[in-house]
Amino acid sequence: MAEKPLFHYDEARGRMESVRWLLAAAGVEYEEKFIHTNEDLEKLRSDGVLMFQQVPMVEVDGMKLVQTRAIMNYFSSKYNLYGKDMKERALIDMYSEGLADLNEMFILYPYDPPGVKEANIALMKEKATNRYFPAFEKVFESHGQDYLVGNKLSKADIHLVEMIYNMEELDTNILANFPLLQAVGSFFFFFFFFLTAGSETRISDMPTIKKFLQPGSQRQPPVDEKSIQKTRKIFKF
Ligand SMILES: N[C@@H](CCC(=O)N[C@@H](CS)C(=O)NCC(=O)O)C(=O)O
Q: Which residue of 10, 171, 189, 206 has the lowest C-beta tally within 10 Å?
């Protein structure tokens, strides 16, 4: 049996969290070797296993892959989450890149100084509400299917669900004007408000994702002051 992929990152969401979501949704088991200190990071660097001296790094199929998108794309190809042809792949990439832009703001804002942080949260919510969520609502409206591309689960759907959950952490009402996105994230409502999600298998009703959303999974909790300080020490910023 092939070895499980091994993730190298700190014990926080950061850039690795989207990779965790992807593999969880694909039902693929992975292991994590957490970086707890700057010495742990320096050890990886001096071992020569971080091509650009950065993490995330994932050991998989004899490779030591860095660059989050490269890692995501490899797993998406491997687990059939990357469309059936070039055009589907282009759409999946286009949607995923939009979501990655929103995600970048989400990853970085906890490290902003007071004042800037609040402004960036407001900006992120504004962008989610007026730019990204309307665009994805329109995609679902245009084809009436359950998944963004080709009526089949892809990395773009998984990234979208992740971003819905992230944005709902900041504002539980953020999907108020997006009924189709509410259905995508319906497990959230099911879980917290005991509403049924209908008979269709929505993305967040998938058993693999449900499992990931439950306590005790490899999903990382929201960042708090303690984890911010720990990350600052590891990466020295
Ligand atoms: N484009 C890279 C950026 C990686 C990155 O900035 N990693 C941070 C941790 S989240 C890091 O290793 N910083 C240390 C450094 O850049 O020296 C990716 O997406 O993987």
A: 171
Q: What is the DSSP string of 78-109?
A: HTT-S-SSHHHHHHHHHHHHHHHHHHHHHHHG
pLDDT at residue number 186: 63
**Which fold, 86-213?**
Glutathione S-transferase Yfyf (Class Pi); Chain A, domain 2 (1.20.1050)
State the Rg of the chain over Cα. Answer: 18
When pLDDT is averaged across residues 144-153 and rounded to a whole number, the result is: 94
Q: Atom of ligand 1 at shortest distance to CA of 15?
A: 10
Domain 6-79, CATH: 3.40.30.10
Q: Which atom of ligand 1 is nearest to the CA of 54?
A: 12
E strand or H helix at 164, and its extent?
helix 155-170
Say how many Å lie between the CA of residue 55 and the centre of ligand 1: 5
- Give the strands of the sheet with 6-10, arranged side by side: 31-35, 6-10, 57-60, 63-66
pLDDT 10s digits, 100-112:
999 999 999 999 9
**Whether the CB of 55 sits within 6 Å of ligand 1:** yes
pLDDT for position 199: 34
